[in-house]
């Protein structure tokens, strides 16, 4: 092996490391927040998913503002151009937050994770339309394998809940749009990733509080009986902190990878959630078709991950880290 080849491999490994670490960080945060929110909204029967969303936005604002004051992070001060630069992210952001929290409480954990797979083809479609990306056939086949499995699994769901299905499919649409537009907006020359997170939360926390008051959600939260339960309060605070970490890790993963890869990382994370839900969730109703569909979903997600990693190893070139997947010839 020549010195040039060795140097190229080292450079390729170094450039791949942030991608892998950001993906693992996002997967871990996404895994933990689903479990914590499931406990709050189902085990404790917390009646106010919108109030929980407000807590997560407030945590994001507080953490980033204090970090900016202490010069830990940097993002531009507010001016009249910022709303224009951000639009339509704030609207997508709050829709993603609220539909995600609502859907978590309406469905069994395994079925929630299966239906969330529909985010993947939606993200692929939006990346093609909005970002102008192109994907090889092998990637598209993997995506549709995930969807096939989701149809099989959902078609045999013995605990069908129309409201739950509606919320989770809305959450899929918002998540896909959030990932694609975030990728478009986090240009360091503009707001950067911290500016996008901070101003998104700032713009949407007040309207969300108003909606929460007008729907009675806020009143239900303040009169909730478990506020004197230390374990519940600790889990509520943990959910707020994880909400910030999830938003940050999503932006970070989208920065180093494509929006589609970020979405598929979330799907791969769901392997653990689905099987844990079967074993300890208590709300999974077993059927053969459901189990087969679930495993087809997971196989498609794993194949996508393999193709993406193989494409990265073949296609990564210095200075071309943002377009790896579209150029892969897998």
UniProtKB/TrEMBL annotation:
Residues 25-305 form the Sugar phosphate transporter domain. One of its GO terms (cellular component) is membrane. It is a multi-pass membrane protein. It is found in: Membrane. InterPro entries: Sugar_P_trans_dom (IPR004853), TPT_transporter (IPR050186). The keyword Transmembrane applies. Keywords: Membrane, Transmembrane, Transmembrane helix. The keyword Transmembrane helix applies. The chain crosses the membrane at residues 20-37, 49-67, 107-130, 137-156, 162-182, 194-215, 227-247, 259-278, 284-306. This is Sugar phosphate transporter domain-containing protein. It comes from Calidris pygmaea (Spoon-billed sandpiper).
């Amino acid at each position: 092996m020549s010195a040039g080849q060795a140097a190229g491999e080292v450079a390729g490994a170094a450039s791949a490391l942030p991608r892998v670490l950001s993906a693992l960080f996002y997967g871990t945060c996404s895994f933990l927040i689903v479990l914590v929110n499931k406990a709050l909204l189902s085990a404790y029967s917390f009646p106010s998913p919108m109030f929980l969303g407000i807590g997560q936005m407030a945590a994001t604002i507080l953490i980033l503002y204090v970090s900016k004051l202490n010069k830990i992070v940097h993002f531009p001060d507010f001016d009249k151009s910022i709303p224009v630069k951000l639009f339509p992210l704030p609207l997508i952001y709050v829709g993603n937050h609220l539909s995600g929290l609502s859907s978590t409480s309406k469905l069994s954990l395994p079925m929630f994770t299966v239906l969330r797979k529909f985010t993947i083809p939606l993200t692929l479609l939006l990346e093609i339309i909005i970002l102008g990306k192109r994907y090889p056939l092998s990637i598209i086949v993997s995506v549709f394998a995930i969807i096939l499995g989701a149809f099989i699994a959902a078609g045999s769901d013995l605990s069908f809940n129309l409201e739950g299905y509606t919320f989770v499919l809305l959450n899929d649409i918002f998540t896909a749009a959030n990932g694609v537009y975030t990728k478009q907006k986090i240009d360091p020359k503009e707001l950067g990733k911290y500016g996008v997170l901070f101003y998104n939360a700032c713009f949407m926390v007040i309207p969300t509080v108003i909606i929460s008051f007008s729907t009675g959600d806020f009143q239900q939260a303040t009169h909730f009986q478990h506020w004197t339960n230390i374990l519940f309060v600790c889990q509520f605070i943990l959910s707020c902190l994880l909400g910030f970490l999830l938003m940050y890790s999503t932006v970070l993963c989208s920065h180093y990878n494509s929006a589609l890869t970020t979405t598929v990382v979330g799907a791969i994370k769901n392997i653990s959630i689905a099987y844990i839900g079967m074993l300890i969730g208590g709300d999974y109703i077993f059927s053969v078709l459901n189990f087969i569909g679930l495993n087809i979903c997971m196989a498609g997600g794993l194949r996508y991950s393999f193709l993406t990693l193989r494409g990265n190893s073949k296609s990564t070139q210095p200075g071309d880290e943002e377009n790896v997947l579209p150029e892969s010839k897998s």
